[in-house]
Design brief:
Length: 382
């Protein structure tokens, strides 16, 4: 819980500072757009080594890599290795496969945080072998610290668990190994005013909450003083996976409200609508008619083009909220449906086809024969 004892942590750890500070607060002034994840999903397999850091930036310290993935290690006082995505995502899911670090006072963390200091956390304490903490903050409000819960998990420092946050405009759910352990409805976060709802980065890191120089309250929360003589303490992360509900190249705060409905999504399909793309393909039917005489040979080719329409539909999932409008897409694209074919008659049926070639000749000959037979019948009656 990075905001729990902000005043003490700001002066001690660079990692903790990052949790309570923003270069530009959209609640106070107009800020540059946030770089966005312009795709539905993002994943990193840290067992593949440093190449998995594509899409991440180092916030503090250094990482090592091994068969268990990325290694975040506190080896001495002041160590706090941390990485964060170089993009923001806007609602969706963040899933991390992690083995927490052991050690009294050592905090292994999975954090989602925005520019307005909306925050959603998982925090495992090295001395607590039976549970993990969940927490959230809205708009940097630290007026109370009653939002955290402790959820049961088996030996998080010894085995890997999958920690997931599912985040929508309606609710946030914390999930361990596929089982939901906590759900926060929008209205329960002070009527939604403190519900995390703005584009966030995913941050992974470790730090010593039990550092002897920290405030007594911080050390107590972390489970006691950290003994650096027992170091190193290592957190392992095998993988991270993100689903992004509103893909976009940038996210822009259109006002100072910090409400999700005010976010402008650039280069994205309008999130509140389904987009249908229609493509038209053309097939060519070639009919060949040949006629032959003893002296001349004539060959006539007639090309008939028939257009057929193939439609594929791409639907953008749309979270709904009774309290807020959908975010605004600054660029939207739609493709009109182009169809070709026979025009229905007034009764809804297709008109009779026009025949060509041999079929046309047969139709004409049949009509003449019928007329001739009618004349013969009339003469016989006379």
């Amino acid at each position: 819980m990075y905001l729990k004892h902000a005043a003490a942590l700001v002066s001690v750890l660079p990692f903790a500072v990052a949790q309570t500070f923003t270069d530009c607060s959209p609640l106070e002034k107009t800020c540059p757009p946030d770089p966005g994840l312009n795709s539905r999903t993002f994943s990193s397999d840290f067992t593949q080594g440093k190449s998995a850091l594509d899409g991440w930036v180092k916030a503090s310290g250094d990482l090592n890599f091994g068969p268990d993935g990325a290694e975040f290690t506190v080896a001495k006082k002041g160590d706090a290795p941390t990485i964060e995505t170089d993009f923001y995502f806007f609602f969706g899911k963040a899933e991390v496969v992690m083995k927490a670090a052991p050690g009294v006072g050592i905090v292994s963390s999975i954090v989602l945080e925005s520019d307005v200091l909306d925050e959603v956390d998982w925090e495992a304490l090295g001395g607590d072998t039976t549970q993990i903490q969940t927490n959230y903050f809205g708009k940097g409000d630290t007026s109370s610290y009653d939002r955290g819960t402790y959820e049961a998990v088996a030996t998080p420092q010894e085995i890997f668990h999958t920690y997931t946050v599912e985040w929508s405009p309606e609710a946030i759910s914390w999930i361990i190994d596929g089982a939901t352990v906590r759900t926060l409805p929008f209205a329960e976060a002070k009527g939604g005013s403190r519900f995390p709802q703005t584009p966030m980065r995913l941050r992974l890191g470790i730090w010593a909450g039990g550092d002897p120089d920290n405030a007594p309250g911080t050390i107590e929360w972390a489970g006691g003083e950290t003994d650096y003589g027992a170091a190193p303490f290592t957190m392992y992360v095998k993988s991270a996976y993100i689903e992004n509900t509103y893909p976009g190249s940038t996210y822009t705060y259109s006002d100072n409200s910090g409400d999700w409905g005010s976010i402008e999504v650039d280069d994205s399909k309008p999130p509140s609508h389904s987009t249908t793309k229609t493509s038209t393909s053309t097939t060519t039917t070639k009919t060949t008619t040949s006629s032959t005489s003893t002296k001349t040979s004539t060959k006539t080719e007639t090309d008939t083009e028939t257009s057929t329409t193939e439609s594929s539909t791409e639907t953008t999932p749309t979270p709904t909220s009774s309290s807020h409008p959908s975010p605004t897409a600054t660029e939207s694209s739609s493709s009109p449906s182009d169809t070709a074919g026979a025009t229905p008659t007034s009764d809804g049926s297709a008109p009779d086809p026009d025949y060509t070639g041999a079929a046309s000749t047969l139709s004409t000959s049949a009509s003449g024969l019928i007329a001739f037979m009618s004349m013969v019948a009339a003469m016989l009656q006379l």
